[in-house]
Amino acid sequence: MRNDARPDAHPPPGGPGAAGLDCVARINRAIDHVVRHLAQPLHLQDVARAAGFSPFHFHRVFKALVGETLNAFVKRQRLERALYQMSHAPRRPLTEVALDCGFSSSSDFSRSFRQHYGQAPSRFDLRAFREARREEFDRLMAGAAAPLRLSAPPSGENPDGFQVRLRELPARTVAYIRVFQPYREGAAQAACERLLAWAEARGLADGQWLGYMWDEPEIVALADCRYDVALVVEDVRPAGEIGRFEFPPMRVAEVEIRGDIALEARAIDWLYKSWLPRSGCVPDEQPAFEAWAGRPFAHGLEHFELACQLPVRPG
User: Fold this and answer.
1) pTM for this one?
2) Pick from 41, 67, 93: which residue ends a domain?
3) What's the structural domain count of the chain?
């Protein structure tokens, strides 16, 4: 989502109102359809149908709100998923990665990768790429949270004493508000407040609250990241900016934390960089979750009580 596109912002009086929120909801349904079917062929007509648009109008609305065409968005999502797999399952053959991420062949993958990143995937310096993105992320977080210790401990060390519990979670349906460019000050909290107001009006506010990133900041540019604020629901049919998504059953590696945002960042780093390589597992194709204890941001930004949940499968 580009800087001039703000579908997560609540429309001001006299602004787009219900019609504008309906467009946002439809585009979110299109994005959800892409995420669910990224390994399969994705045709404009099918994605437009999922969003409830004619293909002609959908193409224009999608580009206006997302800042890139559907084809460009799909290709970027596939490439970023491939980088994620190359990072966390480095022994996996590139041909398997290519097909799993929706490319028709390894040559199609290599050509698209070279066009986007300037090198063939087999020659790409993934470590340097991730380090550069991490430096950008750390600068942003340090500006908001200085002087907290955001840097990760050396691989294999666990000075915070994190403990992993493997859990089997059932299928979950969530009502969500999607936040684009979530590192903007106050963006995620504002979305939480709106979803909380929606939930309180329906007697749902004391359910399980989740937050999850669809993108890993060490791979995806911060301006392109997406974060969903969500509440586990059953039969509720949301509308407007509030969407609905169904997650399948999954196994998660869970670490409970009670502390500041820096502790959460270190827990996620430790899960990926220390626990995961020794676990015999690889990440599943689902986002990592924050499962809040109680309501989100109940203690502001100074203290979090939640479980970090990394979906995994056998390696």
Assistant:
1) 0.81
2) 67
3) 3
